Amino acid sequence: MLLLDSRHRLIGEVEVSRGSLNQSLVHPREVFAPALRESAAAILVVHNHPSGDPQPSREDHEVTQRLVRAGEILGIRVVDHLVIGGLEFTSFARTGQLIASSA
């Protein structure tokens, strides 16, 4: 995860979770704890798919939406979630999949 200031300049990077071959469990509290400690205004989440396929899984979509909702409550914007597979990547923001809640 990349920690960003209010102008989206890099504050730091943090490894939040290290997954197994086909799964990584991520909870919003683990993601936002370092962001809160470092007074980040925004975060950019990045993870890889060892399969080489950069297409987000159903779980990737679910985790992303939980993070967006948690970030709205905490005042820390999730600016993107990048899924890297091989030499390619998918950007949730670029593909319109980074959706804020309407609540």
Question: How would you describe this structure to a colleague?
Answer:
The protein is α+β, with helices and mostly antiparallel strands and 103 residues long. 26% of the residues lie in helices and 26% in strands. It contains two helices and five strands; from the N terminus they run E-E-H-E-H-E-E. A five-stranded mixed beta sheet has the order 2-1-3-4-5, with helices on one face. Strand 3, helix 2 and strand 4 (77-85) form a beta-alpha-beta unit. The mean pLDDT is 90.
C-alpha-based Rg, rounded: 13 Å
Low-confidence stretches: none
Which class do the helix and strand fractions yield?
Answer: alpha+beta
Helix content bin = 25-40%
Shape: globular
**What is the mean predicted local confidence, pLDDT?**
90
Strand proportion, as a percent range, falls in 25-35%
Tell me the number of helical segments per DSSP (H or I, 4 or more residues long). 2
Order the strands across the largest sheet as they lie in space. Answer: 2-1-3-4-5
Largest sheet: 5 strands, mixed
Q: Termini separation (Å)?
A: 26 Å
Write the H/E string, N to C. Answer: EEHEHEE
Number of strands: 5
